[in-house]
Write a structure and sequence with these properties.
By secondary structure, the protein is mostly helical. The protein contains 9 helices and no strands. It has one domain. The mean pLDDT is 92.
């Protein structure tokens, strides 16, 4: 176990210090800041609900459940249970480019939420899968680069996001299969 922790810490310092450059020092704090994305996310969600047809409305509805599940799993259940201290609270020689944040880091809620969204949208919009996953990878990388998460935090965050999406999609697919005749389910069912 100590080998993994040591490797994780070395990777953190490699990304945070050896890959440091002036362009990333501006870009990564911008990417990692959720406040910069609230309005674009809201606009995309409204567009899905209004112009996305049945598929867009179902994706827009399910994204709420997916993100709530991944966020609660990562921040309210796993983080306090594991209790891994954020690297920015431990290492003074770390390049901290944003506010350090809460006490615990494992797993990254940013990584779990963005990957949950990426997996869900990839299910509904397969042609955009590469874009969705690239966005998730860049957000995950930014959390390490700015000094608030270890690489393993981000990796496990991606797993939490995948599992959350899997559970919600499984529930959705079971629901539309088990109760196909009801009006509410007919509104949720996507064909083709």
């Amino acid at each position: 176990m100590s080998f993994f922790i040591l490797t994780d810490t070395e990777l953190l310092f490699f990304i945070n210090q050896n890959l440091a450059n002036s362009f990333f020092d501006i870009l990564m704090p911008f990417i990692t800041n959720l406040h910069n994305w609230r309005i674009p996310i809201l606009i995309i969600w409204i567009a899905l609900m209004i112009f996305g047809g049945k598929k867009g409305r179902v994706a827009g509805l399910l994204i709420i459940f997916v993100v709530v599940m991944s966020d609660q799993l990562s921040s309210a259940i796993i983080k306090p249970s594991i209790g891994r201290i954020r690297p920015c609270h431990l290492y003074e020689n770390l390049r901290l480019l944003v506010h350090c944040g809460g006490k615990y880091s494992f797993p990254s809620s940013h990584a779990s939420n963005i990957s949950a969204a990426a997996f869900l949208f990839s299910y509904f919009y397969r042609k955009g899968s590469i874009i969705f996953f690239c966005i998730a990878l860049v957000v995950g990388f930014s959390r390490i680069y700015v000094g608030v998460h270890y690489p393993l935090d981000v990796l496990v965050g991606f797993v939490v996001g995948f599992c959350s999406t899997f559970v919600i999609l499984k529930f959705y697919l079971t629901l539309i299969e088990k109760y196909p005749g009801t009006k509410f389910i007919q509104r949720l069912k996507i064909t083709g």
